[in-house]
Amino acid sequence: MSARHTFFQHAGSTPIIPISAKILTIFITLILLSNFMTNFMSLQLSQRQIINLTNTVLVDRLKELYTNAGSQYQLASFSHDTDAAFKALEVTASRDFTLPNSLAVGIDRSGKILFRACANRNISWPNWNYDAVLTELNDNYNNNIMEGSLRFASPSGEYFGVYKYQKDWNCFLIRAELRKDTQRDTYRVLGIISLVIILLTTGFLGIGVVMFNRLFESIKKINESLYAMQASSRLSLIDISKAPNDDITYLAASFNALSSTINNLLGIFQKFVSKDVVAKAYEEHTIALEGNQRELTILFSDIKGFTYRTETLGNEIIDVLNVHYNRVIHRVHEQNGVIGSIIGDAILAIFGTQKTGTVKSKDAVEAAWEITTVTAELRKKMIGRRSEIEKSRRLTEAEERVFNAVLLDVGVGIDGGNVFYGNIGSEEHMANTVIGDNVNSASRLEGLTRIYHLPVIVSSYIRDETQAETDRYHFYEIDTVQVKGKTEGKHIYFPFDTQRFNEDEEQRYLVFENGLNAYYKGDWSSARTHFLKCGLDVAQLFLDRIGLGQAPEEWSGIWVMATK
Fold first, then answer.
1. Under a CB-based contact definition with an 8 Å cutoff, are residues 368 and 328 in contact?
2. Calpha distance 461→276 (Å, rounded)
């Protein structure tokens, strides 16, 4: 599956947005709002000022039109040509037009248009609804208000301007400008300023990104380390070797100190409890008194002749045990097992508590053979050391006893099934444990390794589960035993490792298997022959058991154990 690209790291399904991005976004947003609002207010004030200035200009131009109207009235009085007078007034007004929709109108009190001039030839004053304007002008006249400002609507938009009553013509002279004409330049300036603001903001944004990236480089490193810790579920130290001496770096240094403390405590905790309990405590941040029925595989390993070794070595037995367990526990962990408990010379390992994708019984069998291998390697090393010493002298009697004491040998018993697995005790002190008949059975199977002279003995549960997964191990039945306290016999097996032993060795177990079948059937004479022929140590036990006699009546093939 290809990796999916994302812009942000995630904590679960929640995206983690960098603080620098948040700060930069807020900063840029506020700057843009501030600039746009300031310029908009400035332009609005400027627009008002423009309107005021325009009104002042209109007043001046209206005065000029008023004066010309009086002059044209005198001329019309002599020539009796009012049309020429009004035409002259249109020409006079048109000379003052500076905007596309400038307007000059003369309208008498009855509403008759005496003259009109407009920079936009498409405007037709009679199409306007001027009744409201005329009403306002007449109302002002009746209130003895002969001049002032006014606003009125048109198809082209809103006009603003000034007016003055001309008594000679008995009309109102109006000089007005279309508002959007005065705003057009304002909006153009606003657009230019906005573009400049955006360009400058974009440039400063790039500079800000670079500066913020440098400023928050230590935060970025902290986040990268935290993301890595989250992915690996392990605490690690943040690299602050090149970080600046600011409060963020101090925060990272404090985190490193806390991380080191937690790692030390976690390491100590990990040495006293099983790995699955450590993992659960790390994920859930708590350990409770709880447990349930689970199907697990139990491995029990014990050192043979431990009493003799303790009497011989004294306190030094601890050093020997530590050397032994250091290798054994490592092998158990390699095979996905956890250490349930260490009881003096015995070790209890549990398989199946973790999701590993492997078969727990197969892992346990492989761990059993690894345990016997590392123990044999330790014996071989001790024998080599003895040979070196004996090149110069013979061992003393005391040294001989010590040598025999350090030649550790172990037996391994494995069984599995439904057991109780969890934490028991109290809120003040608790222990992780496994309880069940199969746990006791694994211990008994380990004890049988001394009787049958075999390094590893397993139950039928282990055989069935392992054979379903691999054909590496050939399980040869050793006996059917009824341990003390039980009413039924139980088949026990030796897991022959085809990768550790050769075909000649396996052939001996095949001969033993034939002898065992004859033994079960009560044909002890044939069984004796096969047991003698195979030459295995385990066969000697059966030879001693059957002697030269015959199978008793009602022989079931089950050997009843007198002790646990």
1. no
2. 24
